[in-house]
Amino acid sequence: MRVAVSAAKAQLTDLLRRAEAGEDVTLTRRGEDVARIVPVARAATPAARLAAIDRAVAMASPAPGPTAARSQDFLYGDDGLPA
Questions:
Q1: Average pLDDT over residues 10-22
Q2: Architecture of the CATH domain 1-59
Q3: Domain residue limits, the chain
Q4: Helix, strand, or coil here: 26?
């Protein structure tokens, strides 16, 4: 939504509500964009931060399966020769 600065003075409260709801509000002067009204990003709560850390740790955990520590078991047969 584009609004002239002179008109925005009279409807500032409504423009703020629209911006908080996610609408793009651009203020213009003589048809040129001069400013935008955007919502302030809310700070994450401590619980949300901990949940994000838990998700990151879960994504970084190694996949289940054989580890490189016993890779020789897959490279060599029972006779000690390469498989």
A1: 93
A2: 3-Layer(aba) Sandwich (3.40)
A3: 1-59
A4: strand
